[in-house]
Write a structure and sequence with these properties.
Chain lengths: 94, 323, 323, 323, 94, 94
C-alpha cells in the first residue's frame, strides 16, 4: 500500500512563490502545498510583517527524479533570492 | 503644521525598536493597504467627473515628463557618487521615481490642517506616476548589463521579458486598485459615492492612522538593514526628495497650479514608493539588494517626508506659487 | 438602475482573470462575511419589533412552501434534462433552493437607488429560506442512493446522520449569525441599535463593496472549473433564477406584498447560496462535485443576478404587483 | 440597565459551546484588540487636556495603592483557603489585580445607557492599574519559591530577571497602545481628534460588539478547562470582584469621585485582566497553570461582571456616593 | 533519549478537518497539529481565497501502528475529498 | 550536491516563540522558519483563537550536533510549557 516518495520542501521569499510554481508547471508537477511563514537565514530576518518580508514553504511530494529536477530548476534563483531547498523520504499512504 | 496623525508612525517605530510584542497581522496590513488604495482612487474618480479632461491631458504629459527626470537624475548620482552597482542604482532610482500613496495622503491631511484647498484629481497624477519609473528602472538595469556599444544595449533591452514586466507593473495591486477605484468613482459620481462614503471617505483618516502605526513597525524592522548601507544612502534619501520637490514646484508653476496642488505635486515627486516598487523590482531586477532600496525609501525618506519634508514642500508652494 | 456597487465585483473578476497579485486574505474574507451576516440580522431584528408577528407567521408558511418548489423543480431538470448524477443534481438543487445574502443586499441597494420602499423584516425570509432546501437536497441525494421500492427509500433516509446534518445546517455560521443578529436586534430595538449603527448600518454598503471585490476574485478563480461543466449548466444557471423569480412574484402577489417586498422575495428565490450551501453539501453529500454547484451558483447565477437579474425582478414586481 | 451589547458575548458563547463552524480568525482578534486599546487611549488623552493634572496625580497615588490591596488579599485567600500552590495563587492574584479593557468599556456603555456622566480621564487609572499587579504577582511567586528566612527571600527576588520582566510588562502591547494613544490624544486635542473620530469614536461600540462576540467564542473554549478547577475557584471568581468593587467604592468616596467615576473605579478593581496578564504571567511564572487563571478571569469573572457585576457596581456607586 | 516515531502528514480540504479530527479521536490519538495552507492536486488548484478552497495540513507524531490505523481510517474519504496522506520517520527529542 | 542534514521541528505555544529563538541565538543558529498553527496535546486543545491558545511550528535545518544542542537547550522548558521536539533526516539541495 505504502509507496515510497520524496518530500521536497522549498523555503523562500513570498515574492518568489509564483516563479517557483511556474518552474513546477514547466516540470509537469501537478501537486504542491503552500503555507505562509516567517523566518531568518543568511539574508537576515524576514518577520512576515508585510509581503516583502514574508516567506512561504512549498512542499512537493514526488518521485526521486522529479525531486532532482525541482532542485536543478530552482538553482538559478539561489544567488538572488532567499531560498532553501531540502528533501526527505516519505511514504505515500493513499 | 504637523498633523498629529504622524504620531501613529512614531508609536509604531517605538514599538518596533523596543521589541514590544505588538504585531499587526500581515492580513490586516494587506487589508489596510487595499482599503487605502481603493479609497484614494474612488475619491479621485468622483472628483474627476467635475473636471475639464482636456486640461488634465495637457498637464499630465508635463507632469509625467518632469517626473521621469527624477530617476534619470538619481541613477547617475547613485552609480557614480554613491558607487552603487548598476542593479542597485537602478532599483533605488525606480523607488524614488515612483510615488507613495501614504505620503500623498498625509500631505492631503496637512493641507486640510493648514486650510489650503486642492483638487481631488491630483490623484490622477498619483496613478500616472506610480509605474513609468519602474519601467525606466528596469531599462537602466538592463542597459547596465549590456556590453559597451549601441548594438549590445539594444540586445540587452530585447532580453527583458517585457510582457511579464508589464503584467507585474500594470496589474500590480496598486495600479489595479487605484485605477479601478478611479473608474468606479467616475461612474458612480457623487450620488453613487454617498452610500459608501461612510467607509471610504469618513473612515479614511482613521484607517490611515492605523496604517501609519503598521508602517512604523515595518520601518523599525528595516532599521538594522539600513545601518549597513552607509552614510551616502542616508544623505541621498534626504536630499533627493528635496530636489524632486523643487522639480515639482517648478513644474506646478509652469502649469499654473494652485498652492495646494503644487504642494501635492512636490510631495508626489519627493515621495518614494514602498508598495508597488519593491515587489516589481524584486521580480524584474532580482540582483538588486532590496535592503538598500527599501531601507532608503521606507526607513529614511518616508519618515523624513512625514515630519520634515511635507511642511517644507508646503512652504515652497506658498513661497513660489502665486496664491 | 444598476447600483455602481456591482462594479466592485467586476474589478475583482478583472483582477482574478488577469492574474493580478491582488489577494484579499482569507481572514478578511471571513471577517467581511461575519460582518454582513450579523449586520443584516441586526437590521431585520430592529425592524421586527415594529411588525405584526401574526401576519408574518402566515406569510412565512407560504413563502417557505413556495420556496421549496425551487429545488423540487431543479432536481428533475438537472437529473433528466441535464443528465447529471443524482448526487450532483441534488447538490445543485440545494444551492438554488437556498439563498444568497449578498444578492439580497445588492437588491436592497437597488431598491434604495430606485426610490422604492421595502420592509426590513424581509430578512426573516432570508433566514427561513437559507436552510430547508439544504435538508431537502440531502433527502434527494439519499433517495437517489436507494434501491427501487418504498422500503429501500425509507431505509436510505434512515441512514442519513440527521443529527450531524442538523448541526451542520442549523449551527452553520450563516444561520447562527443571521438568527443571532435578529434576536439581538429585536431585543436592542432602535435605542440599543443606535450606538452600534455607525458600524452595522452606516458602514454596511461600503463593506458590501469590499466583499463584492473579494467575491469577484473568488468567482474568477472558479472560471476554469466552470468551463468543464458545459453549456447545459450555463443555461440552467440563467433560466432557473428567472423561473424562481417568477414563483417569487406569484407568491408575493398571493400574499399582497408591496412592490419592494415582492422584488426582494423574487430576488431571494432567484438567488443561489454560496456560503452556507457549499459547506453543508460538501459534508452531507460528498459524492457531489463542488466545482459544478459552486461554479454555477457563484460563477454564473451570482453575476447574472447582480447585473441582469435584479433589474428584471424589479421590473417584474413593478409590472405584476399593484402599487 | 443591561446594555444589549452583552448579547454579542452570549451569541459567541452559544456558537462556541454548540461547536458551530463560526470562527473569528486570529488576525481579526488581534486587530480588534489593537483598535480597542488605541481607541480608549486616544479618548482618554483628548479628555486629559481639559483636566487639572495636579488633582489627577494625587488621586492616582491613592487609586494605585488601594488597587494593590486586591492581589494582596487574593493571594493568601487562594493559597490558604483555596489550597493552590504559590505559583498558581500568585498568577491568579495578578490577573485580578490587573484590569480588563473590555469590562471597562462595557461599564462606560452602561453608564451612557443609564444617563450617568463620567470623566474620560478615568482611562488614566486603567493604564496605571494594568501593570503593577503583574509585578506584584511575580514578586509573590518568587517569594513563595524562597526558602524560609529573610535572606532567602531577598535572594529569590534577586533571581528575577527584572529587566526582561519590565520589558514584558511595560512594552506589552496593552500598555504601549493605551499609553501611546493617551499621548497622541493629548497632543492632538479635540481638533486633531475630529478627523479620526469616525473610526476611533463613532465605530467604537460596534467594534466592541464584534470583540465581545469573539470573547464569547474564546470563553466557550475555556469552559472545559475550568470544569477541572473546582468549586472554590468558581466562588473566588465571583466573590473577589465584589470585594474589589467595594474597595473601589470606598476609595472613590475617599477621593470625592462622582457617581459615574466611582462606578468605573469599582469596575476597574473588580475586573480581571485577560490580555496583558496571561501573556506576562506565562513568561514570568511559567510554573502556574494558565488554565486556572484564564479560566477564572475570562470564563467566570468576565461574564459575571458583564451581566451581574456592572449593574451591582452602578447601584453601589449610586447608593454610597453623594450625587 | 531520542525515541523513534512516525510523522503522519495529512493534506486535505479545510472542510474535512473536523472529520479527520473525529477519526483521530476514535483512534485515541491525543496529539496533532493543524496549519492552514493552499495548494494544487488532482482536483485542481485550491488557492485558499475562501473556506471552500482552503486546505489544511494535519501532522500527527505517533507510533507505527497508529500511523497505519490513521491511514486506514482516512481511506474512505479518499474517493470524495482532496486528500494526501504521507508518513516519514522522525525521532522525538523530548 | 545534496548535503545530509537534520530537520528539527519544534511545536510549541506561541508565547514560547521568543524564548526558543533566544536559545537558537545562544547556540549560534542562524536559520529557522516559523509558522502559525493550532493543535492538541497533553495539555488540551489549543485552537488558535487568540494568542494564548495559538501554537507555532519552528523548523531548523542544521547539522546533527546542533540538533542535539537545540533539544538540550529546550529541555528546561518542557515541564512548564506545551512543547514537542522532533527530528528527521533531510538532504539540503542548494
Ligand atoms: N537553516 C534553516 N532552517 C530553516 N529555515 C531556514 C534555514 N535557513 C533559511 N531558512 C528559511 O529560508 C528563508 C531564506 O533564507 P536565506 O536566503 O538564508 O535568508 C529564511 O527566511 C528562512 O525562513
Ligand atoms: N504531490 C503533492 N505534493 C504536495 N501536496 C499535494 C500533492 N498532491 C496534493 N497535494 C495537496 O493536497 C490537496 C488535495 O489534493 P488533490 O485531492 O490531489 O486535489 C492539494 O490541494 C494540495 O494541497
Ligand atoms: N503527537 C503530536 N503530534 C503532533 N503535534 C503534537 C503532538 N503532541 C503535541 N503536539 C503539538 O504540540 C502542542 C503542545 O503539546 P502539549 O504540550 O502535549 O499540549 C500541541 O498543541 C500540538 O500542536
Ligand atoms: Na517620487
Ligand atoms: Na434561491
Ligand atoms: Na482588577
Amino acid at each position: 500500500m505504502a509507496r515510497p516518495a520524496k518530500l521536497v520542501t522549498v523555503y523562500c521569499e513570498a515574492v518568489l512563490e509564483p516563479l517557483v510554481i511556474r518552474e513546477l508547471d514547466r516540470l509537469g508537477v501537478v501537486g504542491y502545498t503552500v503555507s505562509d511563514c516567517r523566518g531568518r537565514g543568511q539574508r537576515g530576518e524576514r518577520g512576515g510583517q508585510w509581503r516583502m518580508s514574508a516567506n512561504v514553504r512549498i512542499e512537493v511530494v514526488c518521485d526521486p527524479v522529479t525531486s532532482e529536477r525541482i532542485a536543478a530548476a530552482l538553482r538559478p534563483y539561489e544567488p538572488d533570492y532567499g531560498l532553501l531547498v531540502v528533501r526527505g523520504d516519505v511514504e505515500v499512504l493513499n | 503644521m504637523l498633523d498629529p496623525i504622524v504620531l501613529f508612525f512614531l508609536l509604531g517605530v517605538l514599538a518596533g525598536l523596543s521589541k514590544s510584542d505588538l504585531k499587526i497581522p500581515a492580513a490586516i496590513y494587506e487589508a489596510l493597504s487595499i482599503y487605502l488604495l481603493l479609497a484614494i482612487g474612488l475619491k479621485g474618480g468622483v472628483e474627476l467627473s467635475r473636471y475639464p479632461l482636456g486640461e488634465l491631458l495637457h498637464s499630465s504629459a508635463w507632469v509625467l515628463a518632469a517626473g521621469l527626470a527624477i530617476p534619470l537624475i538619481a541613477y547617475p548620482v547613485l552609480r557614480h557618487l554613491g558607487r552603487f552597482g548598476h542593479h542597485d542604482a537602478a532599483a533605488i532610482a525606480a523607488h524614488y521615481g515612483s510615488v507613495s500613496v501614504v505620503t500623498y495622503s498625509v500631505a492631503v491631511a496637512a493641507l486640510g490642517e493648514a486650510g489650503i484647498g486642492h483638487d481631488g484629481v491630483m490623484v490622477i497624477y498619483l496613478v500616472l506616476l506610480e509605474m513609468p519609473a519602474l519601467l525606466l528602472g528596469v531599462v537602466l538595469a538592463r542597459l547596465g548589463d549590456a556590453p559597451a556599444g549601441g548594438g549590445g544595449r539594444l540586445q540587452a533591452l530585447r532580453q527583458v521579458h517585457w510582457g511579464r514586466l508589464a503584467h507585474e507593473v500594470f496589474l500590480g495591486k496598486s495600479i489595479l486598485l487605484l485605477a479601478g477605484g478611479l473608474v468606479i468613482g467616475y461612474v458612480a459620481g457623487e450620488a453613487g459615492y454617498a452610500p459608501i462614503a461612510p467607509v471610504f471617505r469618513d473612515a479614511f483618516k482613521g484607517v490611515l492612522a492605523l496604517f501609519l502605526l503598521e508602517m512604523g513597525l515595518v520601518a523599525a524592522s528595516r532599521a538594522g538593514a539600513f545601518r549597513t548601507s552607509g552614510v551616502f544612502l542616508l544623505g541621498f534619501a534626504i536630499v533627493m526628495p528635496l530636489v524632486a520637490a523643487a522639480i515639482g514646484i517648478a513644474t506646478a508653476r509652469q502649469l499654473g497650479f494652485s498652492v495646494g496642488n503644487a504642494a501635492l505635486l512636490a510631495t508626489l515627486y519627493a515621495s518614494a514608493s514602498y508598495i508597488a516598487a519593491p515587489a516589481a523590482m524584486r521580480i524584474a531586477v532580482p540582483q538588486a539588494n532590496p535592503a538598500l532600496s527599501i531601507g532608503a525609501s521606507l526607513g529614511i525618506t518616508f519618515p523624513f517626508n512625514l515630519f520634515v519634508g511635507i511642511p517644507i514642500y508646503l512652504w515652497m508652494a506658498r513661497t513660489f506659487i502665486a496664491g
